[in-house]
Write a structure and sequence with these properties.
mainly alpha; Non-ribosomal Peptide Synthetase Peptidyl Carrier Protein, Chain A; 0% strand; Nitrosopumilus output domain-containing protein; globular; 77% helix
């Protein structure tokens, strides 16, 4: 498995875990919105974090920052890599 693919899978798992920690309906709504608006899955957000940010902002409003912070904190604890830094930069701005 390539390193980039491994990072993508780790990002996907952390996003899914963060959303499921909130609730299954939240997870399902985010997945549904990503699919209907951007024709993508959570794993596609690794290459397109702006999609995740837009969906989270639409769903949570200003509280989306809390969800984004949780994702950011988990990723920073788990992975130190340039591609993750790029993902987080887009997600947090």
């Amino acid at each position: 498995m390539s390193q980039d693919k491994m990072y993508k899978e780790m990002v996907t798992v952390i996003i899914e875990k963060t959303l499921l920690d909130i609730s299954l309906p939240v997870y399902e709504s985010v997945v549904s919105s990503l699919k209907s608006k951007y024709y993508c899955t959570i794993s596609d957000c690794y290459e397109n974090p702006q999609y995740l940010k837009k969906v989270l902002t639409e769903y949570f409003g200003n509280s989306s920052n809390i969800v984004i912070d949780n994702i950011t904190n988990e990723l920073q604890k788990t992975i130190k890599n340039q591609s993750i830094t790029k993902f987080l930069t887009v997600l947090n701005h």
